[in-house]
Amino acid sequence: MKLSAPIYHLKRNARALSRRQKIPLHQALDTIAAIEGFPSWSLLAAKYEATTPAEKLFPRLAPGDLVLVGARPGHGKTLMSLELAVQAMKAGHPATFFTLEYTEKDVLDRFHTIGIDPADFAALFEIDRSDTISAEHIVARLADAPSGMLVVIDYLQILDQKRETPELMVQVRMLQAFARTKGLIFVFISQIDRSYDPAMKSCPDLADIRLPNALDLTLFSKTCFLNNDEVRFQAVA
User: Strand 150-154 to strand 125-128: parallel, antiparallel, or no bridges (unpaired)?
Assistant: First the structure.
């Protein structure tokens, strides 16, 4: 059963209900759980804890969002981005994956890694491996994209790898404006700077993004950082 709102919204609703009706918080939580179809809040919470990080994050995304997913190599940033694409497609929205890193087979194999048969979403998922991937290419490619589409860019730094393309800041601003106009969700996979030391900080953050050129990271509305089994996501202030 899908919750009607993210769990933190439901907790907020329960606190408001507790104050409004002057009832104990645990009673208000159980009332909210009953509305969601659960006998108690503890059972609702147990279901929430059993969901994947992508299932928790996707309901917090909205059309127009730019999401930054960062991790060191081998820590699951590509799989997380594909899991977000799966959540979008389960909700009936198409998804597109732009990459110069992977072959089509590589991408489809990663679907199997997360327990998904790509054939189930054949009509909703596309892969673009063009050598000309840039903001201009992406905007042209998605000119007719419907609102709600989730777009993965693998990875942020490839936008800036050719001298003939505009600087990274210009390209991200272009994609931000495009996402807001079209109602799309952009997920940017990002490399982490080699200076990041997990012994000093359990999970990377915005300060650890590898930037070949200047970029205002507040252009991103949400972030998701991964390290080993730790996943941290939040809105960018």
Answer: unpaired
pLDDT of the residue at 209: 96
Extract long-range pairs of 160-163: CB within 8 Å, 24+ residues apart: 160/212, 160/213, 161/212, 162/134
pLDDT score, position 37: 92
Cβ burial 49-66 (10 Å sphere, 16+ → b, else e):
eeeebbbbbbbbbeebbb
Residues of the chain with pLDDT under 50: none
Q: What DSSP letter does each residue of 110-168 carry, written as one string?
A: HHHHTT--GGGGTTTEEEE--TT-SHHHHHHHTTTPPTT-EEEEE-GGGGGSSTTSPPH
Going from the C-alpha of 126 to that of each of 63, 87, 119, 191, 223, the distances in angstroms are 19, 15, 12, 23, 24
pLDDT at site 56: 86
Residue 191 falls in which region: left (phi positive, over 0), alpha (psi -120 to 50) or beta: beta
DSSP state of 192: B
pLDDT per residue over 15-37, tens digit each? 999 999 999 999 999 999 999 99
Fold entry, domain 53-235: Rossmann fold (3.40.50)
CA distances in angstroms from 104 to 41, 100, 110, listed in the order given: 43, 10, 10
What pTM was computed for the model?
0.82
